[in-house]
Amino acid sequence: MSVELMLNAVSINFIAFSAYLDVTQITGVIFAIFVVAVAAAEIGLALAIVLRIFRNRSSINIDEAAELKW
What is the CA radius of gyration of the chain? Predict the structure, then answer.
């Protein structure tokens, strides 16, 4: 959750500085779109991990997920 908040803060900063420095260029918006794409990939990876745990353990229990440590 904290990583998502940091990514959103960076996106807002990119857009704000882009609007402040040069209104005609949209480089800040382009970087913000890349940040959103990275966040979507992160969510997809987390969902894949949760689904793999469910497939192997037949439950989504946090205590059982701790057994995946090396």
Answer: 18
- pTM here is 0.68
How far apart, in whole angstroms, are the C-alpha atoms of residue 23 and residue 26? Answer: 7
What percentage of the chain exceeds 70 in pLDDT? 87
CB 39 within 8 A of CB 4: yes
With contact defined as beta carbons under 8 Å apart, do 11 and 32 qualify? yes
Residue ranges of the domains in the chain? 2-68
- Cα–Cα nearest to 25, from 15, 35, 33: 15
Give the amino acid at 61: N
| Predicted local confidence at residue 37, as pLDDT | 92
Looking up tokens 């745990």, which residue turns up? Answer: 53
